[in-house]
Structures are given as structure tokens and as C-alpha cells.
Amino acid sequence: MSKAIVSSLYDSDVFKMACRQFDQAADAINLPDAIRDRTKYPRRCLAVSIPVRRIDGSVTVFEGYRVQHNISTGPSKGGIRFHQDVTLGEVAALAMWMSWKCSLAGLPYGGAKGGVIVNPSKLSESELEHLSRRYMQEMVNFLGPQTDVPAPDVGTNEKIMGWMMDTYSTHVGYLSPAVVTGKPIALGGSQGRREATGAGVAYLTKKYLEDMKLPVNKATAVIQGFGNVGSETAIALSNYGAKIIAISDYTGGIYNPKGINLKKALEYVKYAKVLKDFDGGEPISNEALLELKCTALIPAALERVITDKNAGKLKCRVLAEGANGPTTNAADRILEQREEIELIPDVLCNSGGVIVSYFEWLQNLSSFYWTRDEVLTKLYGMLDKAKDSVDAQKRKFKFNRRLAALTLGIARVAEAKASRGLFP
Length: 424
Prior knowledge:
There is one protein chain. This protein is α/β, with parallel strands linked by helices. It has 14 helices and 12 strands. Among the domains are: 42-176, Rossmann fold; 196-349, Rossmann fold. It has a 7-stranded mixed sheet. Strand 3 (76-83), helix 3 (88-105) and strand 4 form a beta-alpha-beta unit. Helix 13 packs across helix 14 (401-420). The mean pLDDT is 96.
């Protein structure tokens, strides 16, 4: 009989939320005790100090993490987050979700995630470069094309991935583009990678609207978060014919029932860095934005924004989770009773980013590169396959869609671990 471990290392609300999701799914598929904790808890983690010399000559020491949740199904894969509220527990939860996401999409990866406690907007360009390179230097013995492959996340971008790739390549003595994904095209990045997550969110939103017989060209969309994922989702949905009536970032939101001028909004954010004071509509708070009447609501910022306080007030037909973990366990229970709302869970909805990261990794390893159309065609094919498998699981066992997605992802990881056995 296995003895469950009780870990205080990752103690946080978001990690507990991820564990509750796992427990519910494991119970639903009767996952044997002997494999449960091996599948549930992270394989390993690393915490590092990152000293950075500032422009004024002082030195600030930042704290960084990397959690590798699962390496039984291939090298671990996951983004690196630069944010002032990063915790080890949050990183562990995100790594866990990455395991299920990669498994659900059929990718030969385990899940990982990294993070640094820092507000990147408070750093100069040179300070940000020093932080990025030192993070990679501290992690260099734990990363690699066949070990763990980072990518961009909140607060990081393709430029940072380029610095990290260069640091790793300098260390090993040869160019190693496959060590990270989400790089600039000039350094081996993939066509279509920048827009991949948002394009996938928009594509699946369109597919579910079509299933519901709701024409996308008459749909309205509300998007919380106007970073890479939110902005690319807005662009793709707009190209499908949907009207984007509200967008937001951490400084607040903009609401315009006639439709946001996305080109103008993107140009404004390019120079102002934030949406605050953008004149394309009425100001609205992030909290009020989530409760606007719309066809599709897309939380595309941080986790735990749909709670038991607002889940009963949502006025959307589709809730498409562009962010990781935006819906709490308590909110899930409320949404399950609201049959008029179709949920597209995060492990399916935002998997476009890691799918195209996989394509980038393959292209780097083979030194053979694809066109943007080839990349997006392959992406949509894999999203269709994942969607069909989730919906089939939902029908077969009468699960809700999140439980269907999680049970598929978790079962595949557990099967791989069981098949490999337990090293003595």
C-alpha cells in the first residue's frame, strides 16, 4: 500500500488548486494508489539566487525557480515567467498543468515551468539581459534539448529566449538552438510561434461556436489580458469576423460595444506599454469586464480570476481559458451547473503555444524549417485531434470538459510511468 506524501515545499493556493483538480481526475479514472503520487508531485525543483549589477553600480539578488514535474515521457517543457508575484508553488502548479497539456496534445514532453521574482518593467534593457543570462547560467546543468526546454511566458519574450539560447550555447561550446523555443526567427525560431497560443485559443473558440450553431461573424468577445496571448487572440478572432468589445491589462480595461479598434490599441500599447488612458472606449475595471455580456469570454492573463464570487454572474456562452488556471475549483462547481456556458479548459484551449514550440524544437533538431502556413495547418490539425478526443471522453463518461481533458492527460502520463517501472 502506497503512502501519500504531504509536501509543504510547494504550499500555495494555486498548487492546492492544481492538486485538487488532479485528485478529482485520478478518482474519476480509479488511478491506482501505487502510481498516484508519482504522477501528481513534481520530479524535482531548483531554486537559485541571481545577482544582477544595476546601472547605478549596486547589486540586487533576485530569486529564481525551475520545476520539472515529469520527465518520464520526454524532456520537460514549459515557459519562464518574470513577475513580481512568482512563488515556487505557482511554478509547480504551472509545471503540473504543462504535463497534462503536453500529454493531451500527444507531445513527447513532460511538464516544467520556471520563474523569477521580479517586475521586468522596473529593469533597464541591460539589467534584463543580465538577469536572463544569469538565470540560464545557474540552470545550465539542468536544461538542454533532451533534458528541459524553456519558452517565453508572462514577462518574457523572444528576445529573452535569444539571450538564454546564446548563454547556453556559449557554455556548451556550439550553437544549440533547440535548448529554448519562442526565439527570434533569425536564431532558429519558428514561423507562427509568436501568435501560436492566441491563434489556437481563437481557433478553438470558433470551433465551439460552430458546434453551438453560433455564427462567429455575429459573435462578441471580451478578453482579459492584452499581452502576447490576449492580443493575438483578439487579432485572430477579429479576422474570423468576431467583434472585440472589451480588452484589458493590469492597469484596467477598455469597453466599446461598437468594437475596439485593435490596430489603434496595438499601436498605443507599443509606445505606452499599457492600456491605461487609451481612448478607444470607456474605462472599465478588470472585475467588471469579466461580467460583461458577450458571446465569448477569454481570460488571458493570470490564474484564479474566475472565482465563486463572479462565476454566477458571467454572461458569456463560451468561456475560453487563454490563461493557465484562471478558474478556481469553487468556480468550476458553479459553472458546471450553468449549462448555457461551454467551457474550453486551459489544458486544451491554450495548448497552441506548446504545440508550435514542439514544431520549433523539431525544426531545430533537423535543421529543416517550415513556412508559416505549414506550421498553422499542422497546429490546427493537432488542435482538432485533441478537441475530438476531449469531447469523446466527455460523452463516453459524462464528464464535464475539464475533467475529460485532465483524465486523458493524466492517464497517459501515469501509463508511461507505470510502463517504465520503478528504478530500485
